[in-house]
Amino acid sequence: MHATYHSNVKLARPDIRHPRVVLAGCQALVEGDGDDDGLVGALRDRGLHAHWLAWDNPATLQADLVILRATWDYTERHDEFLAWTKKVRNLLNAPEVVAWNSDKHYLLDLAAAGVPTVPSAFFAPGEPVSVPGGEVVVKPAVGAGSVGAQRFTDAVAAAEHAAALQANGRTVVIQPYDERIEAGETALVFLAGKQSHAFIKGPMLPPPGGSVAMHDSGTYAEEQLQPADPDFEMWDVGHATLAAAAAHLGIEPTEFLYARVDVIGDRRDPRLLELELVEPGLGWRQLAAPERALAQRQFAVGVESALERLGLGPFSGRGR
């Protein structure tokens, strides 16, 4: 198969395979929030032609490779989304990665592997909920963008919110509130398994009784971001997290095209809050232009490597 991206594009080397690449968003934000705007150009610089589509656009099924970037409504359509991940020809990150990482039970797997993790208790629909003392965070096990997450100092109110989520068919996660999050989360970005850059995400959950400020699209909470240069102890948690995730899934860390490891605290006692392998914001706009260009080139090279691994490299169709 020698697919071209557009029928009216004259190819200088027609004997070379030109895989069709799609960056997947959602209907509310087909091209994301603007942070990924440089990716199409970075891919083009490597000879790869990509365009944006909402993940549920049937045309995604014609693409050779789909890269998840802004599929921010998937949590409301989780089963449908997971079924779609298996229908597309090739997906980054891979369907089995998405299935595992889209449910916060993955935190238990990472904690069992020795990753320092924020303690998490899970309660499926119908299960009695136990709320520990002190301030807690209650959120759905399948959720993104802080939707459905709230802070509580009142155990009764926390149990009521958990019950409401359960009544909606959601498994609930309850975590102790760690005050160090007031200083923000350190988001560690890895591209093709390699350390890339980092940024700080300001605290998103308001104090008990407050409401989360949502983006106009309704798909995620507004974030306050700033650049960061974390200590190596923070990066060590990131590397350990990625290694544990890859080992659990039976793959190499390099097979994660992108990963964001969200850590709270500082080098004295850093703890994993989230590992984002589905559709994390990668904080490109927190980088100065030269560093951003370099990091996005690293992303594009990671896509090239993945295409080779998947048998979609530029010369993979020759001689067949």
Automatic annotation (TrEMBL):
Keywords: ATP-binding, Nucleotide-binding
Organism domain of life: Bacteria
Domain ATP-grasp: 107-307
Protein known as: ATP-grasp domain-containing protein
